[in-house]
Design a protein that fits this description.
heterodimer; A: alpha+beta; Rossmann fold; OB fold (Dihydrolipoamide Acetyltransferase, E2P); 2 domains; six-stranded mixed β-sheet; five-stranded antiparallel β-sheet; elongated; B: mainly alpha; MetI-like fold; two-stranded antiparallel sheet; 14 helices; binds adenosine-5'-diphosphate; binds magnesium ion
């Protein structure tokens, strides 16, 4: 679907240079200031401070029940913060009812009006604004075209497939051209293929319409694909807010490293730290570990090295240099994923680490197989040292 | 296949139960009443002729058929006999009562559906509670409330709101009060069940799109509760048309209702045949609008597809 449309040529350029969060003079469009939300004595959102900028595609990522929807509902006006302040374009929006906020939401359940056809569903918000009839018709037409729903305009929601319903919900929430569009797990009910297609369509839409999108998801791949920045949440707390590549390559905490993608967490103790290097010892390998990173740690302090499986190298032969950054173990299990193979290596101490290798060639001379003795190595810049 | 055959038979068995029930308890009595309505009054036991006598075989049956006539219908439909007026007035009283029931019942059902989940079973119990007392006793109780020396008048006079007792008992107002009071659960329960099913995120979606709560009620909540409105209205309207006890006990001598006319015809005039004709016509009056309503609904459903 997306492929038929010539892709907006400027997208790449805009995406590469779009970093309003790095500009201290830039005023955020949405600002959460120490926002707390409690239900009874349960704290669903805990002291969240967050700036979101105009035209940003921002993703809230976290496990189910971590408070993502609650955070979004405060912005839409369905919940009021227990403490803290919420501003939109510099204006405090607390106390403003949802029907007066320039924010629209696409609901997780779509919440389409079952007694109205697709046309009336999309026109609903425009009618509330007392827009002239001809303008409504034109806007609805445009929305139908944008979401490829022209043929279904007269159908009721129950006569549509899940994917079509999702489009109606999207068209309805986009129709008013809100300053901010909130999307609560918008693709949750779609199958994988449709989901991936729609992700790219969403990105194009957001670019073309020049709107700010705040998307909630528990699917990290989705967040990584669509978002300019991701906020990782857990138990109502923001763990890290950063662009996808930073979240993946430089996670701030063990939790983030573990939540996003696969990771091996190697606990250790600092032996020495100098300049921009740290050497550590770890109970899981007799060889010292070295990372090209210094957090100002002193010898004896504890730290953890997070290494992604694809940044580890595996071989049957002993490496030339075994003075640092290597593990010895035995293949405990192999997961063949087609494009990748995941090797689960059991170290001598009993801990297992994961190594992934692209399957570059169809025929391999001597494939690594079960119970093989292997060496696993990594480069000093491949690991990230974490203290939290 | 054997399995499919067995399944098919099982389904017929299950379907047969309600159909047998309808045949035994609705169709058969109706045919008997219809037969009587085509007969003539007689001083006999039973008090009408002809009686079907099958000892003469086929000739007896045709002889029986030839003696049946629609005279009783002509009598009932004769304007001067005041049955038509009674039908009309019953329909009007039942319609007004149904509207009043909706006006009273909707807020109650709405309040129940929006009450905290934990309270809803209690509220439901409270709505059903009056059924624990006899219907007749409850209607009699209204006499005590509405009579000139009754609780209501005494209370209002004690409060100084009125100086003279209001004339309520034996008026149409008392009939409306009686019907609304007695039928309220039949209105509230279907409305509650429709409103309780309503997905509240729809209202949030409406608010999100700029629709204030009052408007959202009329554009979302009310249209989606229409099946409940229709069910409640039918459940109240149909028995209200034929209502006899309430107009008899609370209504005045000039409160004209078909149930009362039928009762007078049957017990005072002792005419089984005319009262049967009244009953058959009443059924027609009630069934025809329901069938039309269902047809319209069916067509709307199909048009939607
Ligand atoms: N209205 C409410 N009353 C009580 N608890 C609530 C309410 N809404 C949400 N919660 C609780 O707050 C937590 C966060 O919920 P939510 O924001 O929906 O999570 P997420 O969208 O991340 O899955 C959950 O534990 C949920 O049970
Ligand atoms: Mg959620």
């Amino acid at each position: 679907m997306a492929a038929e449309k010539p892709r907006n040529q400027t997208i790449g350029a805009v995406r590469r240079t779009f970093q309003p969060w790095a500009d201290p003079d830039k005023k955020p469009l949405i600002r959460f200031e120490n926002v707390v939300k409690r239900f009874g004595d349960f704290t669903a959102v805990d002291n969240v401070s967050l700036d979101i900028y105009e035209r940003e595609f921002f993703a809230l990522l976290g496990p189910s029940g971590c408070g993502k929807t609650t955070l979004m509902r405060m912005l839409a006006g369905f919940e009021e913060p227990t403490e803290g302040r919420l501003t939109l374009a510099g204006e405090d929006i607390s106390g403003i009812p949802p029907y007066r906020r320039p924010v629209n939401m696409m609901f997780q359940s779509y919440a389409l009006f079952p007694h109205m056809n697709v046309l009336d569903n999309i026109a609903f918000g425009l009618k509330q604004d007392k827009m002239p009839k001809a303008d409504i018709a034109a806007r609805v037409e445009e929305m139908l075209k944008l979401t490829k729903l022209e043929k279904f305009a007269k159908r009721k929601p129950h006569q549509l497939s899940g994917g079509q319903r999702q489009r109606v919900a999207l068209a309805r929430s986009l129709a008013k051209r809100p300053k901010v569009l909130l999307l609560d797990e918008p693709l949750g009910a779609l199958d994988k293929k449709l989901r991936e297609e729609t992700q790219f369509e969403l990105m194009d839409l957001q670019m073309d319409l020049g709107m700010t999108f705040l998307i909630v998801t528990h699917d990290q791949e989705e967040a990584m694909t669509v978002a300019d920045r991701i906020a990782v949440m857990n138990h109502g707390v923001l763990m890290q807010v950063a662009p996808p590549a930073v979240i993946y390559e430089q996670p701030a905490t063990r939790y983030v490293a573990d939540f996003i993608g696969e990771v091996n967490l190697v606990e250790g103790k600092v032996i020495s730290a100098s300049g921009d290097e740290t050497r550590l010892s770890s109970p899981i390998t007799p060889h010292p570990l070295r990372v090209s990173q210094s957090l100002g740690l002193k010898p004896g302090e504890e730290a953890c090295i997070a290494i992604r499986p694809e940044k580890l190298r595996i071989s049957l032969d002993e490496p030339a240099d075994t003075s640092e950054n290597c593990f010895r173990g035995e293949i405990w299990d192999i997961g063949y994923l087609g494009d990748l193979s995941i090797y689960h290596v059991e170290l001598e101490c009993g801990q297992r680490i994961k190594v992934s290798q692209p399957n570059l060639s169809r025929v391999v001379q001597r494939p690594i197989t079960w119970d093989d003795k292997v060496w696993v190595t990594f480069a000093p810049h491949a690991g990230v040292m974490l203290t939290r | 296949m054997a399995m499919a055959g067995e399944k098919g038979r099982g389904r017929y068995l299950v379907l047969a139960v309600p159909y047998l029930w309808l045949v035994a308890l609705f169709l058969a009595p109706f045919l008997i009443v219809f037969k009587i309505s085509l007969s003539q009054d007689a001083i006999a036991q039973p008090p009408y002729t002809p009686l079907l006598d099958l000892s003469d075989g086929w000739a007896g049956f045709t002889d029986y058929l030839s003696q049946l006539s629609f005279d009783n219908y002509a009598y009932v439909l004769d304007f001067s006999n005041e049955f038509i007026q009674a039908y009309g007035s019953s329909l009007i009283i039942a319609s007004i009562s149904t509207v009043l029931l909706l006006l009273v019942g909707y807020p109650i059902a709405y309040g129940m559906a929006r009450a905290p989940r934990s309270m809803q079973p209690t509220l439901l119990m409270l709505v059903i509670l009056p059924f624990w007392t006899s219907f007749l006793i409850r209607v009699y109780a209204w006499i005590g409330i509405l009579s000139p020396e009754g609780l209501l008048n005494q209370g209002l006079m004690a409060l100084g709101i009125i100086n003279e007792p209001l004339e309520l008992l034996n008026t149409d107002i008392a009939v409306y009060i009686g019907i609304v009071y007695s039928y309220l659960p039949f209105m509230v329960l279907p409305l509650y069940s429709a409103l309780e099913k309503l997905d509240l995120t729809l209202l949030e979606a409406a608010a999100d799109l700029g629709c204030p709560p009052t408007k959202a009620f009329w554009t979302i909540t009310f249209p989606l509760s229409l099946p409940g409105v229709a069910a409640g209205a039918l459940l109240c309207f149909i028995p209200a048309v034929g209502e006899f006890v309430i107009p008899d006990l609370l209504g005045g001598s000039n409160t004209l209702m078909i149930g009362k006319s039928l009762w007078t015809e049957f017990t005072v005039n002792r005419s089984w045949t005319v009262s049967s004709a009244v009953a058959v016509l009443l059924l027609l009056v009630l069934v025809v609008p329901i069938v039309i309503y269902q047809n319209v609904q069916q067509r709307e459903l199909e048009a939607g597809k």
